[in-house]
Here is the input.
Amino acid sequence: MKKCQASRGIGIRDKVERGQIAVSFVVLVMLFFLLAAALVDAYSLLEARNWGYQAAQQAALAGVSQGRDWSGLVSPPCTGGPAPIQLDGATAQTAATLFLKQEMNQRGIYLYASDIRALPDYEGGTISGYPPVRVRLGQMRGYWSMSQPSVGVYLSFPVSTFLMSIVGRPLVQVDVFASASVHQPEGACIP
Here is the structure.
């Protein structure tokens, strides 16, 4: 009789241990799922931010290269060195805007905001309140200053998330800022 009771006790213990293993397995699978979802979101946001910086930088470079005002080379504004280069602000902004629009269309992003500014003068300048939000690799919000003719590109676009959408945040806004400048020739005379 005692043998039967002992064998019943072992059977119950085995069932309890199997149940604990099953619960542990389910918990581990859920934790693995959450970790994988968090990694997917982190990768998506990082990739989108890096792509956004690259698109903004390329747009700024397009603005600087296509917006150069070559009239100063024909009739230099000063003497005593090579003629300085300045930008045609409207042409630079248009070139940057068109490039950025093309990049966003290729990526399939149609709901985005951008703010493109030019500092066309020989010695650059300062724009207060730009970029409109604090962004990585950009100076603090509200003050953009460059010492050479430059184009600045601020870009903001939404990125879809996986895990965050489960907790009520299906889109995360990514804000980036990049700028490009015209390098003045060595010893250029600045009027």
